[in-house]
Amino acid sequence: MRHVLDITDLNVTEIDELVATAEDMLANSAKYAHILAGKKLATLFYEPSTRTRMSFEAAMLELGGSVISCADMSRSSASKGETIGDTVRVVSNYVDVIAMRHPYEGAAYAAALKSPIPVINAGDGGHSHPTQTLADLLTIHREIGRFDRLTIGLCGDLKYGRTVHSLINAMLRYENVKFVLISPEELKLPAYMLETLDRAHAGYEETSDLESVIGKLDVLYMTRVQKERFDDESEYERVKDCYVLTAEKMKLAKKECAVLHPLPRVNEIAEEVDDDPRAAYFRQTLNGKLMRMALILKLVTEKDSVYIREKTVLGGKCANKKCVTRLEKLAPLYKAEEENGMHRCAYCETLQKLGDRK
Ligand code: NCD
Questions:
Q1: Whether 97 contacts 300, CB under 8 Å
Q2: Quick check: 314 pLDDT over 90?
Q3: Which residues sit with their C-beta closer than 6 Å to ligand 1?
Q4: CA triple 252-250-264, angle to 5 deg
Q5: End-to-end Cα spacing for the chain
Q6: Dist CA 150 CA 141 (whole Å)
Q7: Which of 247, 308, 327, 331 is buried deepest, with most CB atoms within 10 A?
Q8: Maximum C-alpha span of the chain
Q9: How far apart are CA 352 and CA 211, in angstroms?
Q10: How far apart are CA 117 and CA 119, in angstroms?
Q11: For 216-256, how does the pLDDT look when each residue is reduced to its tens digit (9 = 90+)?
């Protein structure tokens, strides 16, 4: 039994295997059409979603399995005060694997701690979104053909964009990958992600000017400003249209630059770019379904795998008010080693001094 809460829960060999399986699923779909007959997936989505939820459900159906879901989690027992842990314990009696999305950071981890069946994180607040990264990786593989020697520009909301955090964590593991972090000051990467880049000795630069760097990118990853994560609406209004990719700007990009976006898009890519052969974002959605098929198959059929995370008990609640430890009375923070005198919350990864915990 095995969970995928973060992209680093899969090693690079496993990523290669998932990519190969996904490619095979595309070429030989009949071979997989009944492979999970009798198995069930539950989608527990506490937050809006179109493609993630539907692609998880389509993925399970295409493997011959079935799906159960709660149409609206705000009408589930969560509204009566049931904890995430109790909900997954109950649901695990009905299905073989759970895909969960939640607005609180670290929620999937809280679920996994109590779950006897695999939990897949389908997005936890502004923290991480590993299966979107699987979609992004297959897209990079299919559009460019390699994961190393790439310059990747990440543009827009790097603060709250969970897909950005997971993609960086995935790409950090390949040789000679450089990151160009393009955002306004207010939407820069969180401290814990910058610390992660520094620890990996990754090459990166930060800029607010897309046009000055677009010409050197092999991948341009555009993102939506995550309106729902802002406490202050006026701050959102100030930054919401900070970048708009247009056909004019695409003239400055390399001939082989792949443009990705996890979608939904709001204003950040003009529709005129859709006809550019470098625009890969709609192909990316098919890739998402294929990689979710490969992942579900792996988790449901894999035997003898054990899920291990560091467990040094510190206790208390996290300083991040969007952390799941602030929503529920959860067991302690688990500590990784100290980083520049700070501790990393095991649920949401926010770096904090022990005295900052609530
Ligand atoms: C992303 C998400 O939910 O984080 N969407 C998705 O899953 N494809 C990106 C977004 O909502 O902007």
A1: yes
A2: no
A3: 51-52, 123, 129, 132, 162-163, 224, 226, 262-264
A4: 145
A5: 33
A6: 12
A7: 327
A8: 57
A9: 35
A10: 6
A11: 999 999 999 999 999 999 999 999 989 999 999 999 999 99
Which position among 21, 52, 285, 350 bears the catalytic label? 52
Helices (H), 128-245: 130-144, 162-171, 191-199, 210-213, 233-239
Written as six digits, the tokens of 133 are 């990264």
* Pairwise CA distance, residues 316 & 310, whole Å: 17
Tens-digit pLDDT profile for residues 149-178:
999 999 999 999 999 999 999 999 999 999
Beta bridge partners of 68: 42
Question: Pairing mode, if any, of strands 97-102 and 40-45?
Answer: parallel
Q: Verify whether residue 114 is a known catalytic residue.
A: no
Q: How does the average pLDDT of the chain come out, rounded?
A: 93
Say which DSSP state 328 is in: S
User: Ligand 1 centre and the CA of 262: distance in Å?
Assistant: 6
| DSSP string computed for 291-304 | HHHHHHHHHHH--S
Tell the residue nearest (CA) to atom 11 of ligand 1.
264
CA of 223 to the centre of ligand 1 (A): 9
Residue 226 Cα to ligand 1 midpoint, Å, equals 9
Burial of 135 (0-12, 13-18, 19+ CB in 10 A): buried
- Strands 343-344 and 351-352 turn out to be antiparallel
The pTM of the full predicted model, rounded to 2 decimals, is 0.95
Q: In a 3-state reduction of DSSP, which class is residue 122?
A: strand
Shortest-distance Cα residue to atom 12 of ligand 1? 224
User: Quick one: 76 exposed, middle or buried, by C-beta within 10 A (0-12, 13-18, 19+)?
Assistant: middle
Residues in Cβ contact with 266 at an 8 Å cutoff, skipping those fewer than 6 apart: 224, 225, 240
Atom 7 in ligand 1: residue holding the nearest Cα: 52
- Reply yes or no on whether 2 is catalytic: no
Please confirm, yes or no, whether 240 is among the known catalytic residues: no
- Tell me whether strands 178-182 and 151-155 are parallel, antiparallel or unpaired: parallel
The amino acid sitting at 256 is E
- Peptide linkage before 264 cis (omega within 30 of 0): yes
> Of the residues 131, 132, 287, which should be mutated to test ligand 1's pocket, given the most ligand atoms within 8 Å of the CB?
132
